[in-house]
TrEMBL record, chain A:
Keywords: Cell inner membrane, Cell membrane, Membrane, Transmembrane, Transmembrane helix, Transport. It is a multi-pass membrane protein. This is Transport permease protein. It is found in: Cell inner membrane; Cell membrane. The chain crosses the membrane at residues 56-72, 79-100, 120-147, 159-184, 220-238, 258-277. It comes from Rothia koreensis. One of its GO terms (cellular component) is plasma membrane.
């Protein structure tokens, strides 16, 4: 009763092909994203509406505290739009990175008992992050139209590039910390700290010129080498600058040097994360 | 006397064991799996250990599988037997891909579905319905395959009225019913079953065994881990006995069972 099985190739069970597995498993990926959303908003009345409420309140608090009380409004026209274009990005980053770092431990029950390409968990956190990002982007666009926004194609393309850099960076970091978290649970505490620090060392609440005024050149370069800074500036360039009446300058060499560098850094993060993941994936089941 | 003896299908004596000549579907070569009994889980402790000049062992190791080589052929029904801690469940986990070995190699071909643990691949906060889709997708079914088989899965599991309840409210028997129903509907070519049928009630056990037999008659390969020697004697023709991570007996199921039960 020999079937065609004799003609098939052997493979090694449980060895994924990393990101290459993702296109083959889009249905499973969608279910994992659904699962994540359902579990998170289970039993909540507002459900996914929370993803509007949280950034909205955060925005009002920051706007009042920083813009009005600290007078940051004075230096920056349309400070609210400036602030919000950074906040939506860092929220997305924090969510994708944070969930990525927690995803293997959080899905321990599945990982221990059944094999599926586990990188799907990491990819699904990006999906969840994007779903929460969309309403915030919508709020940002509405604010843009209210104050008068006339972007050109170049600026819109910059927003897309900024988004891609941040996605890759969050995915890579999430993978690295996610793998570390399986072995040392300290790493998820480190994540919150890191997101907080990154929020303040990027020009989200203030303008990059303030750093340029105070910091020596090497420090400014270090500051601009941060992929988050680059993404935030690209977003400012796309969503805030086209609302201004006056000329404003992005940091020098942003497009010619810092953006390509950020792309490289983000991709290296992904590669490192992927290598770590492949090396340690086989031990997840016994460690969780 | 157990109910197994009353079942005409199951009480038939197993034909004498003849080593299979069908194509190999699972090839295991000198497999070693080492477990680390970690003493610490925090970076602080690991750091202190490093500072102290790595004195003492941070972790202890033992080999759950210690050089296992085994070929399993298409259509075989193999029982992995052994006492607790002999490594049989670990071997099943390595075949399913949940864990990777440290040395040696496993090669497999064909769709593998495993019932490794009760509720494997179920998320407690999702309903039975959502879990059928999730579990089916994990086991490699497409959306249309699951849509098509959904009614049949629910019918097989006999838990229609609870299908929209979150599975955390399920009993272990209900878990098993649903998990088994999904697994058999994925139409696996290699079916791995760990000690899980034990939680089902007798009628459902019968139903499962009937289904397993049916799969096996269609040429599917079956690998079972069980302590229920009477059941495996009727289900499998080949027995592999593990002891401390090594194979000590491989052949006719009757020989394997008598190895574990010298007085019976």
């Amino acid at each position: 009763m020999t079937t065609e099985i004799a003609n098939r190739d052997f493979r090694r069970p449980g060895r994924g092909r990393g990101l290459l597995d993702v296109p083959k498993h889009t249905f499973l990926l969608r279910l994992l994203v659904d699962k994540e959303l359902q579990v998170r908003y289970r039993g909540s009345i507002l459900g996914i509406l929370w993803s509007y409420v949280k950034p909205g309140v955060q925005f009002i608090v920051f706007y009042l505290a920083l813009g009005v009380f600290l007078d940051l409004n004075k230096g920056l026209e349309n400070y609210a739009v400036y602030l919000f274009s950074g906040i939506v990005l860092i929220n997305y980053f924090g969510e994708a990175f944070g969930n990525g770092a927690r995803c293997f431990v959080g899905n321990g029950d599945l990982i221990k008992k059944i094999y599926l390409p586990r990188e799907l968990f990491s990819v699904s956190t990006i999906g969840v992050g994007l779903i929460h990002f969309a309403p915030q982007l919508l709020v940002l666009l509405i604010a843009d139209f209210v104050v008068g926004w006339h972007p050109n194609l170049m600026q819109l393309a910059c927003a897309v590039v900024g988004m891609c850099i941040l996605t890759a960076f969050a995915y890579g970091l999430g993978l690295i910390f996610g793998v570390a978290n399986v072995f040392f649970r300290d790493s998820e505490n480190l994540v919150d700290l890191l997101v907080m620090v990154l929020t303040w060392v990027s020009p989200i609440m203030y303008a990059w010129e303030r750093v340029a005024d105070k910091a020596p050149e090497w420090l400014l370069h270090l500051y601009l080498a941060n992929p988050i800074t680059v993404s935030v500036e690209l977003f400012h360039y796309a969503f805030w600058y086209p609302t201004l009446e006056y000329e404003w300058h992005v940091p020098p060499h942003l497009l010619s040097m810092w953006t390509p560098l950020a792309v490289v850094i983000a991709l290296v993060t992904v590669v490192v994360g992927d290598l770590l993941f492949r090396k340690f994936e086989g031990n997840f089941a016994q460690e969780l | 006397m157990s109910w197994l003896d009353n079942d005409p299908e199951l009480s038939k004596p197993m034909p004498p064991y003849v080593p299979s000549t069908e194509p190999v579907v699972i090839k295991i070569d000198n497999l070693v799996k080492r477990f680390v009994l970690r003493h610490t889980r925090s970076m602080k402790e690991a750091f202190v250990w490093l500072l102290k000049g790595r004195k003492g062992d941070l972790s202890e190791k033992f080999n759950a599988l210690d050089g296992v080589s085994l070929d399993i052929h298409e259509g075989e029904r193999v029982a992995l037997l052994g006492l607790n801690g002999s490594g049989k469940s670990t071997l099943l986990k390595l075949i399913s891909g949940v864990m990777h070995g440290d040395q040696g190699e496993i090669l497999a071909r064909g769709r593998i579905a495993g019932l490794i643990e009760v509720g494997a691949g179920f998320h407690p906060d999702l309903t039975g319905r959502d879990n059928v889709y999730l579990n089916g997708a994990i086991l490699g079914m497409t959306k249309s395959e699951i849509d098509e088989n959904f009614d049949s899965i629910v019918e097989f599991s006999e838990i229609e009225q609870f299908i929209d309840t979150e599975v955390k409210f399920y009993s272990s028997g209900m878990y098993l019913r649903l998990a088994f129903a999904v697994a058999v509907h994925t139409d696996p070519e290699i079916f791995l079953v760990d000690e899980i049928l034990a939680v089902g009630d007798e009628p459902f056990q019968k139903k499962c065994i009937k289904k397993i037999k049916e799969l096996s008659q269609r040429g599917k390969t079956l690998i079972v881990v069980s302590h229920d020697l009477d059941m495996v004697k009727r289900l499998c023709e080949r027995g592999v006995v593990l002891e401390n991570g090594k194979i000590v007996e491989d052949g006719d199921i009757r020989d394997a069972v008598s190895h574990l039960r010298p007085d019976g």
